[in-house]
Amino acid sequence: DTAVSQTPKYLVTQMGNDKSIKCEQNLGHDTMYWYKQDSKKFLKIMFSYNNKELIINETVPNRFSPKSPDKAHLNLHINSLELGDSAVYFCASSQERSPLHFGNGTRLTVT
Amino acid sequence: EDQVTQSPEALRLQEGESSSLNCSYTVSGLRGLFWYRQDPGKGPEFLFTLYSAGEEKEKERLKATLTKKESFLHITAPKPEDSATYLCAVKANAGKSTFGDGTTLTVKP
To answer: What is the pLDDT at residue A1?
Structure first.
C-alpha cells in the first residue's frame, strides 16, 4: 500500500535517554515533515526537508536532530530526553500545493 | 506570522442535526486551505483543499467553503461515524502548513 509509515508506534523511555523515530514514504513526494502534537491536539511543525535538504527548522531545541538519507526517508533523533518531550510525533509528506499525508504517529512518553 | 483559529473547540450534535465548523485565518500568500479529519490514535486524514475565495467542495455529508478570511465546514445530517477532530490548515508561500487547534465533533445517536 502507498503510505507514510513511521516506527515505533509507542516509545516509553526515561529522562536523559536518546531515542530515534523512523519515517518512510512511498508516495514519491519531494517534501517530508516532522510535526509535534501536544495533549491539546495542537499540531506544530518542527522540520521540513525537500529532496534531502532542510528547508524549515522551527524553534526546536538542539536536542532534536532530523536526518534524511534520501527523499523517501526522514528520521528524528532526540538526545537527552526531557519530560516535556512527551507528545505524539507525526511524520508527513507532500508535493507542492498538495495536502499533507500523515503517518499514524509515534506516542513518546518520557518518565 | 500565519495564524489559524478554529471554533468551536468542541461541538456535540444529535444525529441528523446539521451544523458548521469555522476556521478563521491570516496568511501571507495563501497557497491552499486544507481540512483534515483525525480519529483517535491516527494521523490526520485529508478531506478537502480550497485555493481561492468562493470555492466550494463537497463529499458525502461534508461541504467546505472559503472566503478571504475564513472557511466553513458544513456538516449536513451527521451520523455517529462523523465523530472526530476536524483540523484546518493553511499553506503559505513559504511552503509551511499552519494548523488550527481543531474542533472535536461528537455526534450522538
So the answer is: 66
